[in-house]
Amino acid sequence: MVRLWLVLAFSGLLFAQDQVDLTARFNRAVELQRKGALEEAAYAYQAVVKDAPRYAEAYANLGMVLSRLNRHREAIEASRKAIELAPALTPARLNLGIACHRAGQFEDAVSAFRDYLSREPGSLQATQLLGVSLFELGRDAEAIPYLEQSVNQNSQDPAVLYSLGLAYLRQRDDRVFQMIKRLNAADSGKPTGHLLQGQYHLMEQDYERAISELTEARKLNPLLPRLYYSLGLSQVKAGHNREAIEAFEKELELSPRDFSTHYYLAYSFEADNRDEEALPRIKKALTFDPESPEGNALLGKILLEQGKAAEALPKLELAVKGDPKEPDKRFLLARVYQKLGRREDASREFAEVQRLKAEQLQKTQQYLEGEAAKKKP
Known about the structure:
This protein is an all-alpha fold. The protein has a domain at 1-120: Tetratricopeptide repeat domain (Serine Threonine Protein Phosphatase 5, Tetratricopeptide repeat). The chain is 76% helix and 0% strand. It has helices spanning 16-34, 38-51, 56-68, 72-85, 90-102, 106-119, 124-136, 140-152, 158-170, 176-184, 190-203, 207-220, 227-237, 241-254, 259-271, 275-288, 293-305, 309-322, 327-339, 343-375. Helix 6 packs antiparallel against helix 7 and helix 16 (275-288) runs antiparallel to helix 17 (293-305). 42% of the residues are buried.
């Protein structure tokens, strides 16, 4: 559980009577906060800083309260103001990191947690959250030492065990199985254990086993992070397009701005021969990542299938520009050139498709030969 730090004393300079009055109001806000009356506490702290704009401790506690109220932007501003006014107010640096983390601003969270740990190097909470923030950024190699340190300090938090396990999985590290075992050892960790096991099977392209594990995870806790995305991906890879659509739509209820989920929802509709439904979905996906090679390729493919070669052309040219070594995208572009009567361009792209496929085949053969050589006594 994330714990924010409450600041109890005022370090500023005021006239005696004003300080007595403001201290009483500050203490009243602290009491409201302790009782869980967060809206009232936020209002009380805001009133204090309005009258005493250099009251760093009030800003620090205001940031904490606003973070718990999910008013993350305001929480970040308040915490930064507290640090500006009182650089020695170390707890405010932890609260800033927590607010950034909760807001999904993981780069800023990493900076804040590193800053806090430079002052409080033994903080388990900051170490955990730094590791998780790096993990969320996909910086697994950096995240793993912090997550391992947290786990070695007897952290049984399923979120930390899961983050470390998934980091291992993405690094193809067999220690992922240790994390699955630890998660499954306690009832609180079993839902995440099934999730991680399912994601392992998904990576191994064992889609039916992935579906089985992820379905079990859903029974135990339907709100696990990226559960429906992983389930949808497993379903579409297994050819269960309608089940995939249901899963991706559920994921979008939880993460409505995620490009990958929007993309695979459109992909699933297209795979189910429902281009009219796929088209608005892929356009929506591209609002979140307009330069995506995959997204532009899918949009170009749908437009081509609808007989709109001229509209498909710029999308597929953008896709090939972003991913020039992927033959399927070049093949679609070649077909568009062909449809538009641009024979030389079509011939060039078809030739490049053949070259890239031959290159891929050669690399696959070399890999298989290398694996076979490893098995020889």
